[in-house]
Amino acid sequence: MENSETIVWIDFSSDCSYISKETAKKLYDEVEEVGKLLGYMIQHPEKFCH
């Protein structure tokens, strides 16, 4: 899943101090939200495919 790869890179960036822990938290929240939206779209394709 693409979200897993994104989370690995957020972890890496945070662990190497490229981004702050606060920024990492915000990015985790964004990744989670995008995952929910994509999951919804996958479960309900009729609403998005015309």
Task: Considering the chains and any ligands shown, give keywords for the structure.
50 residues; 74% helix; mainly alpha
What does the largest sheet look like? none
End-to-end CA span: 26 Å
Structural class: mainly alpha
H and E string? HH
Number of helices: 2
> In percent terms, what proportion of residues is strand?
under 5%
- What form results from the Cα inertia axes? elongated
Helix content: over 70%
Strand tally is 0
Could you list the spans in which at least 5 consecutive residues all have pLDDT below 50?
none
The domain count comes to 1
Evaluate the radius of gyration: 14 Å
Please, what is the average pLDDT? 94
Question: Brief description of this entry?
Answer:
Helix content is 74%, strand content 0%. The chain has 50 residues and is an all-alpha fold.
